[in-house]
Amino acid sequence: MTRRATFLTASIAAGTLALAGCGSPEEDSEPAATPDAPSTTVDETSVEDSPTDTNGEGDGSSLETSREGMPDFSQFGIEAQEKEFTASPEERGTLSAVRDGEHEGYERLVFEFSDAPSSSIYARFVDAASTGMPDVGDTSDPMDGLEVLELTVNGLVDEMTVHTPELHADEHWYPPQGDLLAEVSLGLLFEGTGTYFVGLNAETEFQLSLAEDPHRVILDFATP
């Protein structure tokens, strides 16, 4: 075969392959996306509106505690504060989760309960982490070098066994983040009253507030 014949044969073969690779647009093209089709992607910023149960093992995420809303800084103070859920005397809750979050201007500590405690919630700074009930034994809790805020929650279920395993009375929970909150002692559950101690690296103004669905006791502490 001459060089010219070889060249023509190769050209024809190449042209045939090119034509074979060109199908009709209707067969090969991808269907166009509909601009108005609803997206199935979940907006992750909406997580802060969803309940989070940390069972005492909060990851310290500010996102977890931001869903409780911004605090009212005009209500911050050093003096004792008292709140009460709107609940029937028959309702008695149990502590189910503790979590914290660091936010601009404040740190937040959240106690979550299975049901609304049926009586008052009281928060105040104290000299030491002690329940002051000698008839139930030594209930003091060393929090050396820390300022101590006592949180008393009345109207709880008496049995300690209903607490989640991570939230036994007399045990400690350590906030995973933040410079102000140092530790939380679950204190004592006695005759329907839960006593919890919050150890802080400095005494500061705070606000006690409540939230429902689920039932939460919220402590906000002012930071510099």
UniProtKB/TrEMBL annotation:
Organism annotation: Nesterenkonia sandarakina
Entry keyword annotation includes Signal: yes
Pfam families (UniProt xref): AMIN-like
PROSITE patterns per the UniProt record, alphabetical: PROKAR_LIPOPROTEIN
Domain AMIN-like span(s) in chain numbering: 94-222
Protein name (Swiss-Prot/TrEMBL): AMIN-like domain-containing protein
Annotated region described as Disordered, given as residue ranges: 20-70
Signal sequence range: 1-20
Record has Signal as a keyword: yes
InterPro entries named among the record's database cross-references: AMIN-like (IPR056303)
Alphabetical keyword list: Signal
Domain of life: Bacteria
